[in-house]
């Protein structure tokens, strides 16, 4: 089929179907905004998906050790060696527990300047293997690019908008290429490599879009609950409807342990801890509303843990406290005791323990395995070992359960390497969609013009699409505002452009 013939067929299809150009125009605007973000999301998401394979290649001397027949040192011995290797004013925050024979032991410390640093030790002989900055290691930078473009809150909102506008791009794209009249399903699903020039690019773009639409939709819907604006509101709404996190996981219950009787209370010590708590309340922090008064780890919430170790349902939970401070404190339970206790409770490997950093702190455990049904978050009194809270998958509401499965699939964790490869194929396919869309626009753009497709000669009603966009704008208010802005700009700034070839 010649290029001219193909162009006539496509043009005829567009003319014969009312609403075609309107859909194309909105698809154009959505794609124009989404394309650069889509490329960033695709590349960073693919890299993060393969984090378990990439990080050992990047930092082999820190993360990998030679398996030995000798018994491993206790967690407390390793923690002591880690503390000795760090500055005296460094505070141990987190222990990453893994039983893999070839992996090092990792502890996270907070330095005096607020920076967090991981220290790695050989679990067999206690040798310090090195340190890494938590904030500046490659996968953390990649994660922050994926979530916030390294721009903080503005970047987070931009990424959220890009995800929402991807929904418009998917919907209008599928509608544009959906088989109609004499077009067969085969023609819509199989690329026509005999075409040349722009028709070939358009065919490849459209066919790939049909194949990727379902995966792209799943990516967007599973990623939105983690966004900083809509995601937080969605989480709060789910909790209010008893469909999200269970009671207490958001700091609603005063979790306190009972200290042994007969211990004198020192007023000065109590006052000192109260002052620290007041300082925490006064410190500006994005989680201050949740963490007020929690001095076990000032400003620390479960969202500060590595993403793979933080169940969505408890993501904003403040780390709860143990008993009120006393001048004479009972000796806290050793870390090894807590690890053994967790093993008896069924949590044996691949989890993170937030260590108590004050007399009122507790051990906070975040377990986020590949199978969401095994997710658990536990809070353990640092003195008695009492389990103050044990949040399991069964305690989640329907929304939290769905989000947990969506997150595991989104990150390529649920069914191993196959899951990773499928996620990578979808991500890189979406990046290719962005590239082919850009090439198509470049080939058809007129000089000194945006090149948006022209409007219909007679605007069709398209009530269903208009209703859908209004509903989308109501569900995602930030997107609704930009939808209105684009519509106004389209009516007032760009005006009625001349009809462009399809």
Give me a quick take on this structure.
Helices cover 49% and strands 9% of the residues.
Main sheet summary: 8 strands, antiparallel
Instruction: Determine the N-to-C terminus distance.
Output: 17 Å
**Mean of residue pLDDT?**
81
The fraction of residues assigned to DSSP E strands is: 5-15%
Shape: elongated
Outline the low-pLDDT stretches. Answer: 1-15, 262-302, 496-502
Rg, Cα atoms, Å: 27 Å
Q: Give the number of DSSP strands.
A: 8
Domain count: the total is 3
Total of helices: 17
Query: Can you give the helix content as a percent range?
Result: 40-55%
Sheet with the most strands: spatial strand order: 4-3-2-1-5-6-7-8
The topology string of helices and strands comes to: HHHHHEEEEHHHHHHHHEEEEHHHH
Structural class: alpha+beta
Region (Disordered): 273-295
Transmembrane segments: 26-50, 157-178, 204-226, 421-442, 469-489
Biased composition (Basic and acidic residues): 276-289
Keywords: Membrane, Transmembrane, Transmembrane helix
From the structure above, extract its key features.
disordered C terminus, disordered N terminus, Nuclear Transport Factor 2, Chain: A, alpha+beta
What does the model show?
The protein has 502 residues and is of the alpha+beta class. The chain has three domains: 3-51 and 151-225 and 416-492, no CATH class; 60-136, Nuclear Transport Factor 2, Chain: A; 245-396, no CATH class. Helix content is 49%, strand content 9%. The chain has 17 helices and eight strands. Strands 4-3-2-1-5-6-7-8 form an eight-stranded antiparallel sheet. Helix 2 (20-49) crosses helix 7 (153-177) and helix 16 (463-475) crosses helix 17 (477-492). The relative contact order is 0.13. Mean pLDDT is 81; it is low at 1-15, 262-302 and 496-502. The chain crosses the membrane at residues 26-50, 157-178, 204-226, 421-442, 469-489. This is Putative iron-regulated membrane protein. Keywords: Membrane, Transmembrane, Transmembrane helix. Residues 352-390 form the PepSY domain.
